[in-house]
Write the structure tokens for this entry.
Amino acid sequence: MVWRLLLTAGLALALTGLSGCSSWSASAGSEAQRTADAIGSEAQVMSLVNRAAQRRDPPTITLSAIMSDVDSALGDAEDAAVGLATDDPARPVLLELVSDSMDTAADLREAVESGDRAALRDLEPVIAELASEAEAL
Amino acid sequence: MKKLLTLALAILSAVGGFVDIGDVVAGGTIGARYGLALLWVLILGVIGVACYAEMAGRVVAVSGRPLFDLVRERLGPTAALWNLLATMFVTLLTLGAQIGGIALVIELASDIPHVVWVIPIGLVVWFVLWRVKFQTIESVFGFAGLTILVFALSIWWLDPNWSELFAQATRPAPPAGEPVPTYFYHAVALFASAMTPYTVLFFSSGGVEEGWKPSQLRQQRLNVMLGFPLGGVLSLGIMAAAAVALEPTGMDVSTLGQIMLPVALAFGVVGVAAALLGFLGATLGATFEAALSCGYALGQYFGWTWGKRVAPERAARFHVSLMVSLAIAVLFIQTGVDPILVTEYSLLFSAVALPLTYLPVLVVANDRTYMGEHVNGRFGNFVGVSMLVVVVVAAVTAIPLMIGTGMGA
């Protein structure tokens, strides 16, 4: 009896949750959307790396390794943007965004490795702007 | 005192046996995407693996024979051969994922690309397998793995919104806007990360190597009931830290470095060093277990003399099979394939193979011919059968979900 009640309650809870506000679609958007999401995600990584690098005792080597992953992911995003149809209006916007992100990533890596706090602070609004632009796409 | 120490070491082994690169990746990616909304799956996985490890341990203690040996005798050579092939495929893939995981940990500590480290890691693992004692391997790496607790500690430093975390944990559904199939894809991966097939195979074979007896059943049960949940707490720590630091940013976790960010933010270089040590301990321990499991599975199926404790000249085929398994995994990762991707595939294929591992354990644990008075009780069978239903659902849905969601994209 107790088990039946628990099972019914669990099922009801799950169904309420699932039907409330989630999509049953397996698709994750268009290629352009996925590329914008990927750039936005890397911008968020850069933001966290920047915060961690401003600590008194930053894990510089690990943050530098994480920046290598960011470079690689932005390279993949660039390839994806280049691969979009030339008449896709998102293509030039994404190419510019990825190019700006790559430049910022290079500046961030340099600031992380040299421990230049002033440069790190200056990069905060730049990274936030990149994240906002990616989210807006 | 000696008994307490033995118990502590055994629990440590179970903790180390639970956490591996699959748990780290699944915990980090899922925490960053869903917060704690998949906590219920982790709890199910811990219950499942503890239940079946207890059964497998009891089978070994009572019969004195390894699992694969009994599976072959009970189900016949053909069914057992399918079991062997599936287990070998998944365990080799898992072994590759663990080696890749070790290489990634060293990359994060050195900023030198992981592919440089793969062959040296293979050589070190082979040397340790060859020369170092079973208990030493288990204890040292289990102990190192405990430093993963730094993730759980980081949560307090990151000043989370506790009510939000509680709300996520008690609402077993995807967040708004998240596709349901993707949520279930990640649920299957997380479940498989807890119930990895090699865990039970290694646990039971280790029991034979250590000569478990029916008189030790209580202690063995205690190891399982404390060790696996403690391992689950380590995984939960990784998931919760990601939920606090990464989920609000909306980032998509795809590298091991990103999983480290919460501890980097909370504790700086000291926290990162502890986390890296923990990951190294967990992945190295899992590498040994997966490599030994390959040898155990082959040795037990073909009836060779097998065992880490048996001198190599007396168990040559077993030791050669360890070496060959290790070489295959090393060469696979050396091709430059992304270890995180290998981990994700290993979890999915583990999910598919789960019934082949767990059904025979349930069958043998219910067979009075082998088990006598230690046959499964009603409660054990209730939990075992319930978990088997979940295992079968996970196995059947894994591949369709993988294809339908584009690997959870």
Q: What stands out?
A: Residues 29 and 84 of chain A are 14 Å apart (CA to CA). Residues 38-136 of chain A form one domain.
